[in-house]
């Protein structure tokens, strides 16, 4: 669990990011989860876009992906959401939380 101060810090970092992944009509599938997990391992902070043709709301999709991957939802705004998860990789410059 991250604190409010840490969430604000991560939101600031996430605003500059471009969405690296899109979730469409099929919703949260195993391929989506696998791709999101690989992105989180590589970057720790990822912005994902939910397309307008998706059946579920952006908040629902964000919470489902985060719950199944053990990540934190940092922000949901419009059709985008930001996830954070500490990477298990060694020799990696991790995001230093305040």
Question: How is this fold's topology laid out?
Answer:
Elements: H1 4-15, E1 21-23, H2 30-43, E2 45-50, H3 58-69, E3 72-77, E4 80-84
Parallel strand pairs: 1-2
Antiparallel strand pairs: 2-4, 3-4
CATH superfamily: YhbY-like
SS class: alpha+beta
User: Going across the major beta sheet, what is the strand order?
Assistant: 1-2-4-3
- Point out poorly predicted stretches: none
Number of structurally distinct domains: 1
Kindly report the average pLDDT value. 94
Q: Mind summarizing the main beta sheet?
A: 4 strands, mixed
**CA-atom Rg in angstroms:** 13 Å
What does the oligomeric state look like here?
single chain
The tally of beta strands, per DSSP, is 4
Number of discrete helical segments = 3
CATH fold name? Translation Initiation Factor IF3
CATH architecture: 2-Layer Sandwich
Shape: globular
What is the percentage of strand-forming residues?
A: 15-25%
The ordered H/E elements are HEHEHEE
What is the CATH C-level name? Answer: Alpha Beta
User: What share of the residues lie within helices?
Assistant: 25-40%
Kindly report how far apart the N and C termini lie. Answer: 14 Å
List descriptors.
single chain; 98 residues; alpha+beta; Translation Initiation Factor IF3; 4-stranded mixed beta sheet; 3 helices; 4 strands; 39% helix
Structure description:
- The protein has 98 residues and is α+β, with helices and mostly antiparallel strands.
- The protein has a single domain (4-84), classed as YhbY-like (Translation Initiation Factor IF3), CATH 3.30.110.60.
- The protein has helices at residues 4-15, 30-43, 58-69, and strands at residues 21-23, 45-50, 72-77, 80-84.
- A four-stranded mixed sheet has the order 1-2-4-3, sandwiched between helices.
- Helix 2 links the parallel strand 1 and strand 2.
- The longest helix has 14 residues, at 30-43.
- It is globular and about 35 Å long.
- It starts with a helix and ends in a 14-residue tail after the last strand.
- The relative contact order is 0.24.
- The mean pLDDT is 94.
């Amino acid at each position: 669990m991250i604190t409010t101060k840490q969430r604000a810090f991560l939101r600031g970092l996430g605003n500059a990011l471009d969405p690296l992944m899109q979730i469409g009509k099929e919703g949260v599938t195993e391929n989506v989860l696998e791709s999101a997990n690989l992105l989180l391992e590589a970057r720790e902070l990822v912005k994902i876009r939910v397309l307008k043709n998706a059946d579920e709301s952006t908040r629902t999709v964000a919470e489902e992906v985060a719950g199944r991957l053990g990540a934190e939802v940092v922000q949901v705004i419009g059709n985008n959401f930001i996830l954070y998860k500490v990477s298990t990789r060694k020799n990696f410059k991790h995001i230093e939380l305040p």
